């Protein structure tokens, strides 16, 4: 029986799991976040992405990827554009220069990106603060000294974020504040604690917070946890996933969703040999899937 494991939702792209809670933006129709970016199904937890800007489609490529601020622990660089990375299919391998104009500063940090639809300017305001300004492509001006000028007319402005270390210190950097300054004003305060091995993110509107935890409990395994807390700090919802590392990449072993007696569990196992293809996180050698309702399925063999 021929089976491709990615049909079971095992794709590696997981940024969509944080959309609508943590700061994220997409140019796709009525999409706040990146629910349509990449091949992720949202099944895999992402406890490292604190901010994501989806660049949407290009002129010919349906998914250009995005700009991500990812951190599983605190760092003095988080208040600087040095913390940003390009994420997505267009940047795995050769960059699609015909679709994307990427400009970096003298330190190699992202400075400007231009696509057929968008123009993004990333400005350093201080050693501890920077601003991401997402605009319509029509805002882009002329190129001079390696960078584009642009119009500050708000009619071109689609989204703006300010990212900063609120302590403005080279030695105190356990907090990160992300503020949406356009078209509305919202603030997320991320606080890292080593004892919890992760971030607590205070959500806008005083509705509670989210814990984003990553724990390496063995050389070949790790656990990620996402907890929702109310204003009193009580756990309202929780999801825990355990992964193991194979030679071909990480694989999800178990997924626990819920708190206490309401928790539901799914489990996966994988073949160690006996498959005629090169496994990857996109296409792992899946053996069994056990669902929370007691149902299960087994892939008995692969023919390619």
Question: Any descriptors?
Answer:
globular; four-stranded mixed β-sheet; 304 residues; mainly beta; 15-stranded antiparallel β-sheet
Which helices and strands occur, and which strands form pairs?
Layout (H helix, E strand, L loop, with lengths): L23 E2 L23 E6 L11 E5 L13 E4 L13 E4 L5 E5 L3 E9 L2 E8 L3 E5 L2 E4 L6 E8 L10 E8 L3 E8 L4 E5 L6 E10 L2 E9 L5 E12 L2 E9 L6 E7 L15 E5 L5 E3 L6
Parallel strand pairs: 1-2
Antiparallel strand pairs: 2-3, 3-4, 5-6, 6-7, 7-8, 8-11, 9-10, 11-12, 12-13, 13-14, 14-15, 15-16, 16-17, 17-18, 18-19, 19-20, 20-21
Could you walk me through the main structural features you see in this protein, from its secondary elements to its overall organization?
- By secondary structure, this protein is mostly beta strands.
- Helix content is 0%, strand content 45%.
- The protein is built from no helices and 21 strands.
- The protein has a 15-stranded antiparallel sheet, with no helix packed on it. The chain has a four-stranded mixed sheet with strand order 1-2-3-4, with no helix packed on it. Strands 9-10 form a two-stranded antiparallel ribbon.
- A hairpin with a 5-residue loop joins strand 16 (221-229) and strand 17 (235-246).
- The protein is globular.
- The termini are close together.
């Amino acid at each position: 029986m021929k089976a491709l494991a990615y049909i079971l939702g095992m794709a590696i792209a997981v940024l969509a799991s944080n959309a609508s809670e943590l700061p994220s933006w997409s140019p796709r129709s009525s999409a706040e976040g990146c629910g349509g970016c990449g091949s992720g199904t949202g099944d895999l937890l992402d406890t490292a992405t604190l901010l994501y800007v989806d660049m949407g489609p290009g002129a010919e490529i349906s998914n250009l990827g995005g700009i991500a601020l990812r951190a599983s622990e605190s760092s003095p660089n988080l208040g600087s554009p040095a913390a940003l990375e390009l994420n997505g299919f267009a940047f795995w391998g050769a960059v699609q220069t015909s679709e994307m104009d990427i400009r970096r500063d003298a330190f190699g940090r992202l400075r400007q990106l231009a696509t057929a639809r968008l123009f993004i300017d990333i400005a350093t305001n201080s050693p501890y603060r920077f601003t991401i300004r997402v605009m319509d492509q029509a805002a882009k001006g002329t190129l001079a000294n390696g960078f584009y000028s642009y119009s500050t007319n708000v009619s071109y402005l689609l989204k703006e974020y300010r990212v900063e270390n609120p302590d403005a210190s080279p030695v105190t950097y356990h907090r990160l504040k992300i503020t949406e300054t356009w078209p509305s004003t919202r603030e997320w305060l991320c606080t890292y604690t080593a004892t919890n091995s992760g971030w607590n993110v205070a959500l806008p509107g005083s509705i509670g917070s989210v814990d984003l935890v990553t724990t390496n409990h063995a050389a070949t395994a790790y656990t990620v946890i996402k907890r929702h807390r109310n204003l009193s700090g009580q756990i309202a919802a929780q999801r825990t996933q355990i992964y193991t590392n194979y030679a071909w990449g990480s694989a999800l072993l178990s997924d626990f969703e819920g708190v206490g007696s309401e928790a539901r569990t799914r489990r996966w196992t994988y073949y160690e040999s006996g498959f005629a293809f090169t496994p990857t996180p996109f296409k792992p050698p899946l053996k069994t899937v056990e669902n929370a309702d007691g149902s299960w399925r087994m892939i008995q063999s692969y023919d390619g």
